[in-house]
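User: Teach me something about this protein's shape.
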Amino acid sequence: MKGTSSPANISTRLQRIAKLAKEAPQMVFTTLAHHIDVELLHEAYRRTRKNAAVGVDGQTAEEYAKNLEENLQSLLNRFKTGTYKAPPVRRVHIPKGGGSAKTRPIGVPTFEDKVLQRAVTMVLEAVYEQDFLNCSYGFRPGRSAHQALEVLWQGTKEMYSCWVLEIDIKDFFGTLSFNHLRNFLDQRVRDGVLRRAIDKWLKAGVLEEGEVKYPETGTPQGGVASPLLANIYLHEVMDKWFETTVKPRLDEPAYMIRYADDSAT
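Assistant: First, the predicted structure itself:
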């Protein structure tokens, strides 16, 4: 299988999922895991940063690549049979920047876990990118903070006067409700293999100062799948609420631009 992975072929496969999701917005996907094979894992591996910090096992991308074919096949087998064990993430604290003395907790998964999370995210993204609203700009392919600012600027120029309200959700990644997230996922994706993997990532635990803790809420900021899970959550509790409940009640035009300013990948 070595060398047969084609980004163009993977893109075509993901486009088929996206087309079906777009044409059937009420459809619940129960079979998605079959799209994840060794070829897609190769592409997920290609897209995974090779110079990032190592996880709890200390394994580097270079070490993983020494037996890449065997490692990816083993990863696929464990993922499909449900025997894959999500390792705890290694928590580090980095400065928030901007002159602040505060730090931001970042969870560092193992390299292999990043590859699997990337593969699952690629498939789920093909579905959810058809559902997300135009007001959402954070952690989405082909979208950026500059685009969000441009839309905001153009929107305010069209109004004679306006209010700009900036809201920051404190520790969103750390307080996200598992149960609510599972209920939101149920509305679109019920593939048992994918959902089992997501649950394992949520429950994997955090290694900090030599101790593994198991938070009852949140998805690790730093996990490859976390930004997409966060967007799924916010799509339900914020974006749809604003578009369907808030805007119709207002007498004047209103815009909501949602962007997460802290990179979690």
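Now, about its shape. The longest strand covers residues 89-97. Residues 40 and 50 are 17 Å apart (CA to CA). If you'd like, I can walk through any region in more detail.
User: That's plenty for now, thanks!
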